[in-house]
Write a structure and sequence with these properties.
Elements lengths: L7 E7 L8 E7 L4 H10 L9 H14 L2 E7 L1 H7 L1 H15 L6 E5 L11 E4 L2 H4 L1 H24 L5 H4 L5 H10 L12 H11 L1
Parallel strand pairs: 1-4, 4-5
Antiparallel strand pairs: 1-2, 2-3
Helix pairs in contact: 2-6, 3-4
């Protein structure tokens, strides 16, 4: 995959599907040090969704220390509602890459969509987060960052259990929504929030 590229960044996101909170993108560059690769294999790096929260936190610290460069970028639910989740995800990815202290000369992006109008060679690979270390690492950095944000938001909006479901549409989250209605960090362009918000505005 290197094909003469010196710095290849893996890029992935966390939070495209939830009903609340931001989307977060991560970008990670590893060097060619085989020792680090062996350590990553030993620790069991893989797609963040396949790891326990405790293992993700352990890997977050390892990646922070061992990566040549890494960055995350958060795009709020307000921007998601304004430009849609796909565009918000791409925006987060672009900004994460731009924040890297080492400029990559190639990007590997998890999924099937590349970044439009972006001046770096790139390739989108479905399930790259399961097969390519730097993309798995980007997934972990994004997921841990987003989970920490939702834990903080739970303090700001008590009673919604954001620290548990992290904004995803679980049964408990849906039950809370039916009882309490949406709060400011719910995505108003997502159903059923959209319908709930319309109902509220229609009766006011």
């Amino acid at each position: 995959m290197r094909k003469g590229y010196k710095f290849i960044a893996g890029v992935d996101e966390a939070g495209r599907g939830p009903l609340a909170g931001p989307v977060v993108a991560g970008a990670v560059i590893f060097g060619s040090d085989s020792e680090i690769v062996n350590e990553l294999i030993a620790i069991g790096i893989r797609d963040s969704k396949q790891l326990s929260g405790k293992r993700r936190e352990l890997l977050y610290d390892f990646i922070s220390e061992k990566a040549v460069s890494w960055a995350v970028e958060v795009v709020s639910e307000e921007i998601i509602d304004e430009i849609n989740i796909l565009n918000a995800t791409k925006l987060a990815m672009k900004r994460a890459v731009q924040k890297l202290k080492v400029k990559p000369d190639f990007l590997i992006i998890d999924g099937n969509a590349t970044l439009d109008d972006f001046p770096i060679s790139q390739m989108a690979i479905p399930k790259a987060d399961q097969n390519i270390f730097s993309v798995s690492a980007a997934s972990i950095m994004a997921k841990v960052t987003r989970d920490r944000i939702l834990v903080e938001l739970n303090e700001k909006y008590p009673g919604y259990d954001f620290h548990k479901h992290k904004g995803y549409g679980t049964k408990s989250h849906m039950d809370i929504l039916k009882e309490k209605g949406p709060c400011p960090i719910h995505r108003k362009s997502f159903e059923p929030i959209k319908s709930m918000t319309n109902d509220i505005s229609g009766t006011s």
